[in-house]
């Protein structure tokens, strides 16, 4: 269990004593907020005086603020895992889930009466408005701590401000324009003042960015640390680099088509006539995002962060496996050189994610805890490049037309068992394809050995019953730590902090901002660093040599396509695609594309390797860009307006 979570074990929640108006009341229940108050007090001591009486008690309260962070590394608590099109699963599910919410969202069944994954009011025991309220209480009372050193006080204030900004950001990404809760309202507040309004998009963005600026202010020895030095007790806490990187993500999102020059939401107004979306495109937003990305990258460099490369001295591997582990361990190796912010919420932040993703690897062992159910659809297999580093439909040397024809693997074919038959789609692909995904006939490298995936009907990795199988025939290898070990009766999973932000993500955000702000040539070195780690040639070389659109990278529009696909590949299965498709406004086309898999109910090569339609989802725009606000909240507070389409 990680450092923050050890502290959180000591925090108790009560409903006594603290007389502070809760934000769930302000935003959802308004004047009737159940008894009007929600009290969050460490160690069951029902007084605000005690909570801030000394450094130790106040630190517990600070960790209370961290406790509201959503468990983004949990497959059922992050909509980006199973709420979009990166992974599919068997349905209906009777077992093997914590919540069905994201699966309902993926199937187009979101609702406004009781919305799925409703982090506004509370999901998985977390209301982000309560998290904001808790941060405000901390900031309002930190001056009362007599034994707190000045440098600690500055740092704690910065942490609370960042967390408050992050909770606002999380809500903004889900709901669009939201109310801003910079301070808690006193109990004496008049009912009319409690009925808050949503704020315009630009105001929300500026508020969050400003709050992060305050959190990250000062030199490397002031406020937030540049790096965590007390690794035994502080891993997972916010650093300057993490704060600046999240600001970069915020501003890239704000500059993207969903929020910049979008006419789809011109009718979204408060009941006082205030317009919530600015329909005018502003190129300056990309310039601002570009500057924020560069500041974050410079801070990362000063902190010693660098793209992760697998250390071959750990174990002797061939070159293909070394490159594969560059990719896998950039995510799965704990606290590696690339990690900007790793989330440790929940204690074992990726345990369930790995068990959902990992199939049965060993024909002589079966462990019911390995579900293998987080199944990428065929569209994800087609997303990755060929071995030449260009899209499969563009590669002049790759037979796109016959990609579904069977081929037999030889000893020269990477990632496929020799003598095995599978479709041509799986041959001559880039290293990230074999690192990220597994399929019938593929190989799976782990620290304790090499495994072969055989997943036709009745085989050890395939369907044998009504659960514990991949519905598409693909498996999500990338997010399974190579130290996982199991037998018939035991399972050891090395959980790793979930990478909310890693350096390659930041590089790709910067490349996107550079291209969109008139500096396309400057974007290429950052793309090429990411590609080189994955064993690929530069963009210029790959497109010039192999693409039937050789000059594609030389225009803003062409490089935009390349950057978006590069991002889709590099960040696959990390919760990025779900939000990227929305901010790019490509979700209606992409998320309405049919979900295909292989015919997993078959036993022969020819029969198994036939495409099967699993589902035909429909992304309805503009409705599905944002969550609905729960209908009851709108009845209680008439100043809250609903998102379009709901």
From TrEMBL:
- Could you tell me which Pfam families the record lists for this protein? SusD-like_3 (PF14322), SusD_RagB (PF07980)
What domain of life is recorded for the organism? Bacteria
Supply the alphabetized keyword list: Cell outer membrane, Membrane, Signal
SUPFAM superfamilies according to UniProt:
TPR-like (SSF48452)
Recorded hits in InterPro entries, A to Z, give: SusD-like_N, SusD_RagB_dom, TPR-like_helical_dom_sf
State the compartments where it is located: Cell outer membrane
The record's principal subcellular location, in a coarse class, is membrane
- Which segments constitute the SusD-like N-terminal domain? 112-250
| Coiled-coil residue spans | none
Residue ranges annotated for the RagB/SusD domain, each copy included: 344-646
Instruction: Identify its protein family.
Output: Belongs to the SusD family.
Q: What is this protein called?
A: RagB/SusD family nutrient uptake outer membrane protein
Source species: Niabella pedocola
Species classification:
Bacteria, Pseudomonadati, Bacteroidota, Chitinophagia, Chitinophagales
């Amino acid at each position: 269990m990680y450092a923050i979570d050890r502290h959180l074990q000591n925090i108790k929640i009560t409903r006594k004593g603290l007389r502070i108006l809760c934000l769930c009341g302000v935003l959802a229940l308004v004047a009737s907020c159940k008894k009007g108050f929600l009290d969050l007090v460490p160690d069951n001591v029902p007084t605000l005086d005690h909570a801030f009486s000394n450094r130790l008690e106040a630190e517990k309260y600070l960790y209370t603020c961290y406790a509201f962070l959503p468990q983004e590394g949990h497959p059922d608590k992050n909509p980006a895992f199973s709420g979009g099109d990166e992974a599919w699963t068997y349905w209906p599910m009777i077992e093997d889930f914590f919540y069905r919410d994201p699966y309902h969202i993926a199937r187009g069944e979101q609702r406004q009466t009781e919305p799925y994954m409703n982090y506004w009011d509370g999901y998985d025991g977390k209301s982000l408005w309560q998290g904001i309220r808790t941060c405000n209480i901390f900031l309002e009372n930190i001056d009362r701590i007599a034994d707190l050193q000045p440098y600690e006080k500055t740092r704690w204030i910065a942490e609370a401000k960042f967390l408050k900004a992050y909770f606002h950001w999380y809500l903004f990404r889900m709901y669009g324009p939201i109310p801003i809760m910079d301070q808690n309202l006193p109990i004496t507040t008049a009912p009319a003042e409690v009925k808050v309004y949503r704020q315009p998009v630009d105001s929300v963005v500026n508020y969050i960015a400003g709050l992060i600026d305050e959190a990250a202010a000062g030199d490397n020895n002031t406020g937030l640390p540049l790096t965590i030095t007390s690794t035994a007790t502080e891993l997972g806490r916010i650093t300057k680099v993490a704060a600046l990187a999240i600001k970069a993500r915020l501003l890239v999102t704000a500059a993207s088509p969903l929020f910049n020059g979008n006419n789809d939401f011109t009718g979204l107004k408060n009941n006082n006539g205030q317009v919530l979306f600015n329909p005018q495109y502003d190129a300056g937003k990309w310039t601002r995002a570009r500057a924020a990305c560069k500041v974050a990258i410079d801070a990362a460099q000063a902190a010693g962060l660098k793209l992760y490369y697998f250390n071959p001295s750990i174990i002797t591997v061939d070159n293909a496996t070394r490159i594969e582990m560059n990719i896998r361990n950039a995510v799965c190796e704990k606290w590696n050189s690339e990690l900007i912010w790793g989330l440790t919420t929940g204690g074992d932040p990726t345990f369930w994610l790995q068990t959902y993703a990992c199939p049965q690897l060993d024909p002589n062992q079966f462990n019911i805890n390995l579900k293998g159910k987080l199944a990428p659809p065929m569209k994800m297999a087609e997303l990755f490049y060929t071995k030449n580093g260009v899209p499969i439909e563009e590669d002049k040397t790759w037979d796109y037309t016959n990609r579904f024809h069977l081929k037999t693997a030889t000893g020269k074919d990477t990632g496929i068992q020799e003598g095995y038959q599978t479709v041509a789609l799986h041959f001559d692909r880039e290293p990230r394809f074999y690192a990220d995904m597994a399929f019938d006939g593929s190989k799976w490298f782990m620290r304790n050995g090499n495994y072969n995936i055989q997943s036709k009907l009745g085989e050890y990795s395939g369907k044998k019953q009504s659960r514990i199988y991949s519905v598409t025939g693909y498996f999500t290898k990338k997010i399974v730590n190579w130290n996982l070990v199991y037998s018939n009766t035991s399972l050891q999973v090395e959980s790793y902090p979930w990478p909310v932000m890693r350096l390659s993500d930041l590089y790709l955000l910067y490349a996107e901002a550079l291209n969109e702000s008139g500096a396309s040539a400057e974007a290429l070195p950052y793309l090429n660093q990411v590609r080189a780690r994955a064993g690929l040639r530069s963009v210029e070389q790959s497109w010039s040599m192999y693409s039937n659109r050789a000059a594609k990278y030389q225009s803003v529009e062409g490089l935009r396509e390349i950057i978006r696909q590069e991002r889709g590949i590099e960040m696959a299965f990390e919760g990025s695609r779900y939000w990227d498709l929305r901010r790019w406004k490509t979700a209606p086309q992409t998320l309405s594309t049919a979900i295909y898999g292989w015919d997993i109910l078959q036993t022969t090569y020819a029969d198994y390797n036939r495409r099967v339609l699993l589902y035909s989802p429909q992304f309805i725009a503009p409705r599905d860009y944002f969550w609905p606000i729960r209908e009851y909240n709108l009845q209680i507070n008439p100043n809250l307006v609903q998102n379009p389409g709901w």
